[in-house]
Amino acid sequence: MKTLNHLRTRARPLAGAALGGLAGTAVDVCLLSTLLHRGVGVAYAAFAGAIAGAVLCFVANKYVAFRDRSRLDVRQVAAFGGVALATAVLMAVAMHLACDRAHLPYLTAKVVCAAVIFVCWSYPAQRRLVFAAA
After folding, report:
1. pTM tops 0.85
2. Fewer CB near the terminus (10 Å): N or C of the chain?
3. Number of other CB atoms surrounding residue 13 within 10 Å
4. What is the pLDDT of residues 67-83, one digit of tens each?
5. Is a pLDDT exceeding 60 seen at residue 1?
6. Angle between helices 106-117 and 74-95 (to 10 degrees)
């Protein structure tokens, strides 16, 4: 029973962060697509989309995934900003490699790159650096 409760405790924030990430990714992909169709390079479009999606992700993660009811403070926003900036840079590099080097369609590349970066970087970093006290 103790293990099941521990699993639920760990699964809820991950599921909430994943749902927030999906909503943020929807914003991200819309901006990415719009910018690409207007002639912006894939790395720049991916960076801009990642930053826009990060704003939505912050709200979803703070209030839904990690149930953080503390007041918004500069430390938390700065930590999230650092994680979001690193995520955006990782996404720009990954998308450049996937699209420009490996010639994957940008939506396929976006799904693969976003999933890998979420699991390997953004969720662990948010849990440890941004919402650790929540």
Report:
1. no
2. N
3. 19
4. 888 888 899 999 999 99
5. no
6. 140
Please state, in angstroms and rounded to a whole number, the distance separating the CA atoms of residues 109 and 57.
Answer: 20
Host domain of residue 29: 2-130
pLDDT digits (tens, 9 = 90+) for 90-101: 999 999 999 999
Q: Do the beta carbons of residue 47 and residue 89 sit within 8 Å? A: yes
Residue that the structure tokens 């590099």 belong to: 93
- The total domain count for the chain is 1
> Two tokens at 4?
């099941």
- At 55, which amino acid appears? V
More confident residue, 121 or 25: 121
What contacts 132, CB < 8 A, 6 or more positions away? none
Q: Are 56 and 20 in contact (CB under 8 A)?
A: yes
